Amino acid sequence: MPIINQRPVVLRMAAFFPSALTRYEGHRQRKLGDVEHCDPQPDRPNQVIHGEEDWLLQLQDRIRRMSLENYTNEVDALQRRRRRAEAERRAMEGPKDPWKATDLGPLREVILTAHHAWFEEAGRSAVDELLERNPDASEGDRQAAFAAGKANREDAFVERGRAWLRDAFGEALVHARVDLDESACHIHAVLMVATEKTSSRRGRQQLIQPSAHPLVKDYERAQDEVARAFEDLGLHRGAARAQDRRLAVGLERVRSEAEGRAFDVTAIPEKRRHVPPAKWRAREREEIAQERATAEHRRARQDEVHRRKRETEKDESLAALAASLAERRKAEATRRQTEEEHRFILQERVAAKNEHRRAMGRLAEREARISADLAAAAADRKAAEDLRTEARNANNVARAMFARMQAALRLLSRGEAFGYDLPDPAAPGPQTRRAPDGAAAKQDLADLADVMKTPRLRGLVKDVWKAIFGQRQELEQERTRVREVAAAVRDRNADLKALLSAAPNEDLAREQALKQFKLDAALRKSGLDPTGEGGR
User: Fold this and answer.
1) How far apart are the first and last CA of the chain?
2) Are both 210 and 132 inside the same structural domain?
3) Same-domain pairing of 191 and 252
4) Domain termination site, one of 269, 289, 309
5) Which CATH number goes with the domain that contains 134?
6) Whole-structure pTM value
7) How far apart are CA 355 and CA 367, in angstroms?
8) Residue by residue, what is the 3-state secondary structure of 117-145?
9) Which helix (H) or strand (E) is 194 found in, with range?
10) pLDDT tens digit string along 11-40?
11) Which residues, in sequence order, are CB contacts of 282 under 8 Å at separation 6+?
12) What does the pLDDT look like over 412-454, one tens digit per residue?
């Protein structure tokens, strides 16, 4: 059984794809990934202990060359075997990744480290030696001794780790670096195990095959090898949990078969799962934050209890003081209230007198306004009565004027019967007319002149006059037309009489008389006199 020590050497291998190399390099340069735990100003800088600065470009270029060479060798091999269809199809597919399909990745990252206390033990030992030589050493000297002792152990660890990586993996080791800006010194290494295989169908093929290396294939063997390499530095192999688990499984199987019972899974040690450092640090931060929050909450509760206690004591003292003050304030308030009541009564009396004086003044003003309103109302009633009287008079005058207008209209119509000419209201300048005969016509003219004295009636009569004059012209035109029709009818009657007198045949005379009768009936129906002696 390997020796188990509290300070084991830690070896960890993790698989990844070449696409993750950029992230790996970014974390090395502290530009990507979880870098919160890294010291931005370490005492000693990180170092590359194997490989060139451009190792990433070289590795990516090597993988591309392997892919292209595999592609050309396979196409050439197919052509040599005269499998043209397969060669053309493979040529169309293009280069492929130079590794077998895998879910984990063909590359391996190796991490070598130890507990940070192991490195710090060397620093404390150096400080103890310094104090043995010089018990009065200053704090600065102690810190320098601690840093020097810790650095010496870190250098020894790095040299031993680099030597072991080179001896164990040889050409498979493409890059290695040491990180000194974290809590513990540790080494990161990148492995690419390359193999070659030649066949008649595919030719020479280069593959990245990590299982081809015995230490990568057998993880427990690698643990044993690294423990032997670091044994003289005081580091030992960690617990062989996989071996213990296998032994427990075999022992439980034997016991269950011997006792005739089912296999007890709980008797098997639980398989330990590796937790990535980033997740472990995140979990640690969460636990610390939770503990801090719990402590803050507990402290806040205690502070709240003390605060409430202080406030209660303060409230009690303030309540006692407030009670005594309340008594004094009550007596003072009673005295002030009495004084305020007396002062208020006096003010109310003065205010009542002033209000009575103002009320009497407002009453006098109101009586004066009422008197004025009554006088104005009387004047308004008188004015309304005058307006009603004036309206009645105007109504009577209008009726009289209307009667006079009717008289004037009758006068105008009678003037035509008398045979005198009416003036044309639309004609400009003075107009002459013949005086009518008879005393009635003279009286009508006098009445018309009397009516026309009022300007408003004169304008109204003028408008009526214009309308009557226009109707008279229309009557004259109608009368002229009737006279023309009557003359035509008389001429036809004369022709008819002459025709009847000259007609030898009595039937022809009767036919002509019937036509004349129908013509006379049509004239009467239209309102005309067939004899020609009258009109409408």
Assistant:
1) 160
2) yes
3) no
4) 269
5) 3.30.930.30
6) 0.50
7) 18
8) HHHHHHHHHHHHHHHHHCCCCCHHHHHHH
9) strand 194-199
10) 888 888 998 888 888 777 777 666 666 766
11) 34
12) 555 444 444 445 444 555 544 444 445 554 565 566 566 556 6
